[in-house]
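Page 37, top half.
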Amino acid sequence: MSGAPSGATAPPAVPAGVERTLTLAQLANSVGDGGYLVTSALYFNHVIGLPPTQIGLGLTLGWAVGALAGVPLGHLADRRGPRGVAVLLAVATATAVGSFVFVRSFGLFLVVACLYGAAQTGLSAARQALLAALVEPARRTRVRAALQATLNGGLAAGAGLGGLALHAGTREAYLAVFAVDVAGFLLAGLVLLRLPAVTSAPAATGPRLAVLRDRSYVLVTLINTVLLGYLPLLSVVVPLWITLRTPAPAWLVSALFVVNTAGVLLFQVRVARRVRGLPDAARSVRRAGALMLLACAAFAVSGAGLPAWLAGAVIVAAVVPQVLAEMLLAAGSWEISFGLASEGRQGQYQGFFGSGAAVARALGPASLTTVIIGWGAAGWLVVGVVFLVAGAAMAPAVRRARPT
């Protein structure tokens, strides 16, 4: 069974200024990330000249490396302190983004993509361990929701910046977006240094990487990983779907990011307030799976030979259930990931749970591009049904994993 060990000491109430500092650090790198997510796939294709298959393969391998790195980097955060590890990985992420500017071949693209995937996954694990160390358990999901709302506010601003770059369509415009992303991660690292130093956790008894033997936690992580398959949709699959399968304009990609991120900015905290324990979290995830099916069905309709304006309207409408599903999944998964983790091993547990995002980003671009772009509307429906089934499977998995 997962759960805090007997006699574990809960963190104190949030120290003054900690939540504000965490929020500022989140905002610092999210603006550049929004621009990067909107422009990166088209930059790799139009500027570097990589075909979509190589882009998908490179991102797949990069995030696969990230998935493997999540647990050891999270364990490093437990042993050496999450603040210092988070700062180091923020710098590493900035280095990876800046290195994309010098990519001229698939081989170098592959190397940089692996560095980026490992640094991003490790940074997420270290940040979650830092939050767990500074925030008492009852408030973690709500604080995490506030950080997610801030993240999406920054992503919305960055998506607007990315839209300008897409409209300009020049190499210099793309590079300006990448430069903003680099600066954002460096600034985030500096802001994290303002947080109080967190004492590293004492060495726990049992296996060094105990999360890998926690079968219940592994199961809920696998289910969450399937649901996180939505992650490459707006950044990779939908841009290709719009340009290859619909008459809608390419700049619509930026508008979708604005709608998505604005929705999370406005409503994520409100949605998270409804999640007050593991049963609520499981129900939230189940509803997310059903809404993702609805969104996939709407995206499928957009490729049915509609006029450009109507196809664009349908695509924008599809983002509404998608963003609601994203918020429900996020709130539920945060509660599950913290609630079923051993307090003395939050870094490695969050690293393992967070590796699901890396796996989704690794397998998603290649598999979803093949299924959706290759099969068309039928592919969208297949993906939607997979989301529905995974969401329904979370409740029994959580009941099995709940600590006694």
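Page 37, bottom half:
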Amino acid sequence: MDATHTNHHIHHESQPQVTQKERVDLDANLPDLSRRVIFAITFGFLGINMGFSLQSSQMSRIFQSIGANPNTLGFFFIFPPLMGMIVQPLIGKYSDRTWNRFGRRMPYLLFGAPVAALVLLMLPPFTGSLGFGYGSVAAMVFAAFAVCFMDLFNNICMQPFRMIVGDMVNNKQKNFAWSWQQIFFNGGGILASLLPFVFALLGMHNTAKRGVVPNTVIWAYVVAAAVLFITSMWTVFNVKEYDPKTYAKYHGIDPAANTQSVSLWHLLKTAPKSFYEICLVQFFSWVGVMYVWTYTTGTLAKNVWGTSNPTSAGFQAAGNWYGVLTAILSIAGICWGFLYSKSKANARKQWYALGLGLGSLGLILVSFAHNQMLTIIAFILFGIAYFTIHTIPFTLLTSSLNGENEGAYMGLFNIGICLPQIIASLLSFVIFPMTGKSQPMMMLIAGISLAIGALCVHHIHEGVAKK
């Protein structure tokens, strides 16, 4: 149905490529924004990534603590990317055409942030406290649904923050805006990941009875919910989006493009070549990331603490240490980001391949490391890759878009992030038994996957779409 409403200036062939200079000219109409506005646009990523970081660093620990079999961990990690794959293209498509008193992207954030905060409070940390029983079907089902809803609303919150940079920030200020967004993103990761470790240092119980998640994890989620709500509302009430006519004037597009509906399928068919080339790299990148999220706690517990028992103090200590390592990777990402911000535009692919290659070395190292110092070095290397995966693909993609349907394309691009995670989770049911149920071997496979992604970078044709 949407395809019948496609406006006249959208063609069926792939978008042609032009030079970076032409892209600068296209962005020239957008005014400079004050640092206060850019701060408000990007600040919400602090809270958004607290939720995602707790998911990545604590979800495996939580599910194993309430009785999940390590053989089935991949099943639970299917739900978050599935939610993202469904939600983000729809948020992008419909917010491209949403204009009301609250703005274009802000209505989705105004609705999503409070619900996301509430869902964080009902997540798996509290599952064991509801009396379902260790390893019970009811506990697993409740936890799985909680994860689905958490990721659903976290994605609803995250997408507006990404899209508004393209809507309001000109080319001259984009490096600054994306840098601040990544600083807040990594800052949220550092804060969330360290909370269980800090709470334990302050004397909070880091172990609990069988089937119950420790208080250190529960209170980390409570703090994350509060920060997510506060930072998101800061953005909602401090950012005034452009009205339809102003947006069209600044972006040099037909004002009718703000109202005409275009099918997602049509956009996929007319996407620039680089869209799919970057998605290929993203496939191998996110297979690796998914296995890091799933198997790091078990790998650390086995290699460093010598245990596979989720109820042991050693396993819970490994869970806290993974939180510390997640903070370390975020700090490494910030430092690498300052270096990357000084690089030349024509060197993006080299930085992309280098970042993935260093991350590959880090994951291979952690799969064999038997002391904490080596895991620190490994996660510094992986932190470089993690920054790279979250930054350079979006830079390469947006340099190939012409300003129309940008939100929809950003949402569709998220399929290239989410689908690999789902495939990786499904493959784990085959691969994990083949490794002898070895979580360290799964980390080795994650490192190999990043290495393949690094090799695929060289086939990306970066370019800008001309109107």
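Margin note: The chain has one domain: 13-465.
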